[in-house]
Amino acid sequence: MESAEAPVKIHKVFNCAIDNIWNAWTDSKLIMKWFGSDPNGKVLAATLDVRPNGTYEITFCDPDGTVHTCYGVYKEVKERSKLSFTWNWKSEPGVESFVTIKLFSDGKKTSMHFEHAGTGTTSIHEYEAGWTTTFEKLERELVL
Questions:
Q1: Structural domain tally of the chain?
Q2: Which band of pLDDT confidence, cut at 50, 70 and 90, is reported for residue 142?
């Protein structure tokens, strides 16, 4: 298991076109269908301004009613290939990390290289487990 200082890196291959994955990350209506680590959780609101220096905010809740809000600023947006942004929690002021998503396609499948860096030791979140279950939800959504 990686230390709290090491970035979380996840490589996942999806059985769909690259546009499906790109849109899942950049369309607020689609992100509301899969975002959040709890398999039974629900996105309450998502605002995405996907452009360099644009902002995003996503609020989701767990079945027990616990509400989470993440937000940040897009740093790099290369359509259908790369998305990078800062990551903050409203519940953890002053703790900022950085997410990079790179997408590669062979036509029928899309490979996603995900990295969440700078999580440090001050966050209470279990990022690796959280992102793993989040991407399982994304995969289920794309299959439907």
A1: 1
A2: confident
- What whole-number distance in Å separates Cα of residue 126 and Cα of residue 55? 24
Q: Indicate the pTM of the whole model.
A: 0.91
pLDDT at 3: 42
Let me know if residue 2 belongs to a domain. Answer: no
The residue-averaged pLDDT of 14-25 equals 96
Beta strands 42-48 and 8-14 are unpaired
Q: Could you tell me if residue 124 is inside a domain?
A: yes
pLDDT band at 116 (very low <50, low <70, confident <90, very high): very high
Q: Is residue 125 in some structural domain?
A: yes
